[in-house]
Amino acid sequence: MSAADDIIGIDLGTTQSLVGVVESGFPILLADGRGSRLTRSAVYYGTGGAGPVVGEEAWRRRVTEGGRTVVSVKRLMGRRAGEAVGAGEEGEQGMLGGVRVAEGTDGSMGVVVEGQWRSPVEVSAEILRHLKGVAEAALERSVHRAVITVPAYFNDAQRQATREAGRLAGLTVERILNEPTAAALAFGLDKLGGRSKVAVYDFGGGTFDVSILELHEGVFQVLATHGDTRLGGDDLDDLLARWLAEQMDGGAGGGWAGMSALERARVLEAAGEAKVGLSGAEEVEVRLPFWRGAQSFTRLVRRGEFEGLIRPLVERTRGLCRRAMVDAGVVAAELSAAVLVGGSTRIPLVRQVAGEIFERAPDTSQHPDETVALGAVIQAGILGGALRQVVLLDVTPLSLGIETFGGLMNVILPRNTTIPARAGEMFTNAVTDQVGMRVRVLQGEREMARDNWTLGEFEVDFAKGPKGSARVGVQFEIDADGILTVLARDTRTGRDQVVQIRHAAVDVSEARVEEMIAQSVDHALEDMVERQVAEAEVKSRELLEAVRGALPEVGSALSEGERARIAEAVEEVEQAMAAGELGRLKGANGRLDAATERLATLLVERAMDEALARRLEG
Ligand code: ADP
Ligand code: MG
Q1: How many separate helices (H) and strands (E) can be counted in the chain?
Q2: Disulfide-capable partner of 320 in 35, 106, 226, 414 (CB 3.0 to 4.6 Å)?
């Protein structure tokens, strides 16, 4: 695979983003210089127009320089003024974190950073540019093409905005992919049969989405999607932070309302860490050293307490899932799978509630915060050809065969043969004392070998002998991975020749398959004529060879007239061959056949006489 074909897959998340690529047939997510695969979707704009900083560093600066740091910009993508925007983490209207949300001159919503209006496309482009850089550093080559995921509920304007952000970042966006579809791909749900229906429950950092998908001929369709743009991990952090604030100073410290922005940020950070800790442990200790001077704040938080706090939020996902199922016309029991996506599904209570909603133990085989990105990478791999499309793998898209006498295509495995498959045929030498045969492996639907594609070729040699004495078996075998093995065996010597042809046999782009079939239809008539001409020519050559061999042996027994008739017919065949006209060839072959009738009889008689004589001698 050449570098120019690389397509990266990107999960452009509200709170976190990831990038990956298919390397040597495997989808992988790429780590940045610090070894992290997760990039905070935060952009910090420095003073005096200093280049923006993206990721963890920007995320940290939001605390001290909230007015310069844009977070959750995805909430604004493709939004017009007047449309609801999920409120910022402080819960204030018209704010996104520490920056003000404002209408641009074109009526779209953007952010104001240090007095300058910036579009969400522009801010998202910074994140995408950063991810492109992460990929290029990891791969040590440049990339220009990408698949980017968006929520299923994104409308056309929001998808266009995402595409535009990619373009600004120097990426050709090959596809905008729905996040639930990406997740389903990552879980391998495209391999479910028939019209399977699946649920994707995505509880991320900023939003909750549930989608019901239906698989139709290997492609997912979104039957229904519901969600809440104000329900994510950030909101859980917020709840826990406010609760912790009430615990401080025995509740006499003024609580959340009495805190400075910096203090709130510290408590929020501690709450986030505690939340993550509680997914694995029954209790965690929250510590804030030097909280308000010399005094430290310490508080043990038990999982039960945390669950009590967040339960009302988690319960809200129940109604949304139920609505999605009603809209899609399914009940939980009819779903072939229900997968959990998004970092917040690591929370035991969330898993439990999701399990109750979908009436099954949730599938936790994938990292929830990496699933969407992994699906984007898989889709990118399929588009770029780095991953074989499993759907196409189970039949041969085009016929496979070898070239035989007269330059004809001899089909061994016809088009649409289910794989794995095996088939073979026996071949012989066309001329006396031929010492080898060239096996040219062909793919395509045309009658003449030269109009098909050559997948490989090799030489088989065999023992010298009269025409038709060699026996070469040619066998084609395609395994489940689509690898074609061609074996040619001289059955007299037992010698084998084997070539392996990787993937090419089944891995043909749909466009190329269509083109080949269209050509075979367009040329059907001329191809048929050409095949008949080639066959007639093979017959002519056989006849001429036979006549030339017999004349010196038994020709003297023929009359002058018979010899003249044969000479005339031979000349006619030679002329017809030179002209390559089907009618003339057939006629000439027929006349030569007739003219040599007595010659053939004489030959047979002589052979019988010789055999008899040998027997008498013996
Ligand atoms: P998005 O796609 O919305 O950006 P993600 O799917 O990446 O979000 O999820 C991020 C959220 O997951 C954050 O709120 C983070 O705190 C939360 N999260 C990550 N790991 C855990 C964990 N172990 N327990 C609870 N929450 C977690
Ligand atoms: Mg997400």
Answers
A1: 14, 27
A2: 226
β-bridge mates for residue 285, sequence order: 300
Largest alpha-carbon pair distance within the chain? 133
What pLDDT was estimated at residue 618?
61
Residues in the chain: 618
So what's the architecture of 394-522 in CATH? Sandwich (2.60)
Q: Is 227 in the pocket of ligand 1 (CB under 6 A)?
A: no
Nearest CA to ligand 1 atom 20: 343
CA distance linking residue 209 with residue 202, whole number of Å: 5
Q: Give which of 135, 171, 167 is closest to 19, Cα–Cα.
A: 135
Annotated active-site residue in 6, 126, 202, 235: 202
Beta strands per DSSP E along 217-368: 219-228, 283-288, 297-302, 337-341
Ligand with smallest separation from the Cα of 179: 2
**Catalytic residue at 461?**
no
pLDDT along the chain (618 residues), means of 10: 74 97 90 94 89 93 90 92 52 74 91 93 98 96 96 89 97 95 92 89 95 87 90 95 87 80 90 97 94 85 97 97 95 96 97 97 88 96 77 68 88 83 82 79 91 87 78 85 83 79 72 85 87 89 86 84 90 91 91 87 82 77
Regarding the beta carbon of 443 and ligand 1, being less than 6 Å apart is answered no
Report the topology of domain 3-175: Nucleotidyltransferase; domain 5 (3.30.420)
Atom of ligand 1 nearest to the CA of 41: 4
The alpha-helical segments, DSSP class H, found in 94-232 are 120-139, 156-168, 179-186
- Is 539 catalytic? The answer is no
**C-alpha distances in angstroms, 594 versus 534, 573, 599?**
21, 13, 10
The structural architecture, per CATH, of the domain 530-617 is Up-down Bundle (1.20)
